Every structure is written in structure tokens, then in C-alpha cells.
Amino acid sequence: MNMKEWLNELREAETKKAMPILSFPAVQLMGISVKELISNSDRQAEGMVRIAERVDAAASVSLMDLSVEAECFGSQIVVSEDEVPTVKGSIVSDLEDVEKLQIPPVGAGRTDIYIDAVRKAVEKIHDRPVFAGMIGPYSLAGRLLDVTEIMFYCYDEPEMVALLLDKVTEFLISYGKAYKETGANGIMLAEPLAGLLSPALAEEFSAPYVKRIVDALQDDNFLVIYHNCGNCTIQMIDSILDTGAAAYHFGNAIDMAEMMKHIPADTIAMGNIDPAGQFRNGTTESIRTETLELMKKCCSYPNFVISSGCDIPPMSKWENIDAFFQAVSDFYGK
Length: 334
Hints:
alpha/beta; 50% helix; globular
């Protein structure tokens, strides 16, 4: 599939399909736990197929599990039955630790499971592109150093942070290439931690490393969609756009209508219905109202695609997910 053509067609279409980050709620369709889902490639692929059969989304997206890559490097993760895994503690705290840190081979930890899951999903899903979920460089470095402490290190020990970013970027490029070899059509690169930085720090410690990944992976047949759900993305939009990603995805912490003013007309931006507030804890009426209101504000921009603001939580009500898609259909129907 020529993905640049797909992107152009999506932008030019009068009726656009929604493209939420929807994967973990498959556990409810399958009657399994999150722990079971993250541990087995067959279940992950089946979950993606089940969702593709259930909703008419623009693309299929694999699990957005931002613990996978950190676990590869040696981080401890916390797994529960019904929540996305999280990273506990840090594994590096000074320059010596970073210098000693080994770049793991692709396939270490659970990466082999996730790569295999996407390979299997690609074999079964043929009516839409398949995107793999992957963490961004600064967000991965933050999980290795500690998500709060890394911001202080950016000021106090920038050389250490830069070295760590070099190492995680090298790993992420290899990981992305492995996804590319599965036949996937692209990656959704999640860089949420960078959304907490000042524009100057984001320009130094996130954007250049994301650009390395984009330059190494992106071509006509494989796209990088950049995701950032931080609340400072509007202020740092220039450096975000400098990454050269094919499309951009933003969270509900920002005003999406305001963000659209900053996006070039030939570039797609997606967002940003609240995953927790609406998909997880809202009602069919509230998510319908929010979706229609956002579309009224943003669909005057031909390059806007309605989506969730971030990864939809595992136990989000399927009636809310269905109501979201129904609202999108009704909006265009009118």
C-alpha cells in the first residue's frame, strides 16, 4: 500500500473515518485480562482483528503499551488485570550508569511478542492500514531515568541525557525496522513525556531524536504518526513539525481547534476526545455530544481527523466506543 497516497486520500475525503488509538478494549470482546493480552501474540492479533470487525476505523493500531521498550532495557514493570502496564522506579541515575547501559537486541523482553502480533495482524487485516505502537525517545529515556527527574537532568546534566537519548534512539530505530519488516504500514510513535517540557527543551531533547527515527523509517510505504498528549504541544508545535512525521496526533489537554490553526494544510492532525473522561467514564450521551461538538469546531479544516486524545483504556465501555463511531457517522451523514 502506498501510504502517502492513503494519507492524501484521507485528507481529501469529504467523509473521513475516525482513527482512535483503540486496542486494549479488545480484552472485553475476548473475555481475557490485560495480563493475558500483553503476554501472547496470538491474543494481540486476535484483539486487533476483533476490533477491526467491530468498528469502521481508518486504520488498525496495535497495543500502545509504553512499558515494553523500558522493560527491554531492564526496567521493572507493574502488570494488573485491567490496566495498561506501568514502569516502576529507574535503572540509571548518573553518567556512569548511562555509559554502562547496554542497548538491548530487538526481540528482548516482550518485543518479540509485539512484533509477532503485528505480523499476524497484517496477515488478517486487509481492509485498512495496520500501525504498530511504539514509544518515543524522550518518553523512553524518562522511564529509564525517572519521569520527573529527567526534567531536572535536562538542565543539570544535559550530556548524560543526550547520551541516553542516543542509546534509546538507536534501539527504537531497530525496533521500528523490525515492525517495518512485518509488513506493517507504519508506527504510532508516542512521545507524551515531551509534552511536559518547555519549547526550548523539547527542541533540544525530543524533536531531533524523533527526527532521526522518522528519517530512518519513513518512506512512501511506511509512515510515522507522531503522538503527544502533553499540555504544551501548541507552544512547541514548531519543533514537533520539524520532526517530519507524516501525521500528528494530540491529546485532550489542549484545544484542538486552536492546534489546527498551527498545522500546515497538507498535513493531517488527529485528536482529541478524552479517553478517561469520555471513553472510560462518560456516557453514550456525553461522548456523542463531545464528539459532535469537536467535529463542528475542527472539521472545517480538511486535514482534521477525529480521534481519541490518547490510548483508550482497557475497560472503557464498548457502548461509549460505539457511540463515538455513531456520532462520527451521523455528523457526516448530516
